[in-house]
Each structure stands twice: as C-alpha cells, then as structure tokens.
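Here's a chain:
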Amino acid sequence: MSDQSRLKMTDSPATLRDVFELPKAEAPEQSSEGWKEFQEKIVKEVRGVKLASMPDITKKFGELFDIPIPDIFLASWKKASAVQVVLEESRKSPEKVLNIELGEHTIVSQHKPSIEVKMQNVIVTKLEFTLRLGFVLKGFNLKIKNGAIREMQTGACSVKGTVEYEKLTIAEKKLALITLPGSIKFPIGE
C-alpha cells in the first residue's frame, strides 16, 4: 500500500469521520465533489431551508460519523459466538483475566444514520444515509475480565466503505491501512 492509502490514527480515537475525511462545518471548501452534489441536492429538495443552514447540516452530518472505530469492533465481537463463550466463562471467574487471540477476520456492517431537518420544531424532511463498512483485521487480541472486553491489543487493520444519500455517493474510502494505538482500553460497562 502506498503512503497515501495509509491513515495514521494514534493521537486520539480513530473515528469514521477520520476514515472518510468528512468536511467540517467550519471548512466546507475542503469538501469532495460528492459532498458538493449532496448539498446542491438538499437545497433543491428542501425548499425554504436557506443555504445558510447548510453549515448546520454539515455539522450534524459530521457528528453522525464521530463514532470511534474500536466501538464498531467491540459491538461486532460481542456478537461472535466464540467471544460470547469466553465472556460467559469470565463471569464465572470474575477476578481472572482471559485472553483471546483473534485470527484474521473481516467485520462488515451497514448502518442508516439520519438527520431530521426541522423548521419551527416541525420536521421538514429526514435525510437518511447509507453507511457501508468493511474492516480486515489481523493479529488482534482481547483481554476479558468479569464478563466484559477490557482491552484490545491491535494488529493490522484495513478499512473500506461508502457513505451514500439515496443513490449519490457522498464519500468513499478505498481499502486503506489504518494505524491504531497498540492497545486500547475499554471503560467498565462497555
């Protein structure tokens, strides 16, 4: 992979906003062509919503993707039967730390985040997006204690995905390697 296809995310939790390099409300000029087409489409669809409100939509759109990537992994792993067995085993010995070495695996998910556009507290329209994600993970380990995943030791992680509004692709990420912190701890209750 080229250096351009590698994302470094070691200073703060990597989010979906980082992966898709989504525009910030204060910097819409850095938008992709898909984002500009989306804005034009929304202005036409939502007559009466002034163009000045687009920064609000841009801000809300970005907030939809402020989801830490480790949270996506965690939600997926909790559904895996092999991990569920170890979680249950750890509940029986709450003081013991159990380790799971995960083989190479893929996490594929689809989500439908949305924004309700309101005028005078009345919903004018609902903007529904389709988010498709694919992660390839190698060399990850989980530390489990008292029925919960407490820590993730990372390995290699690649991601690809798309963000769409109706049939318009707003953002797309070709398969790229993400550099995550070597270890990520999860708060109790995760």
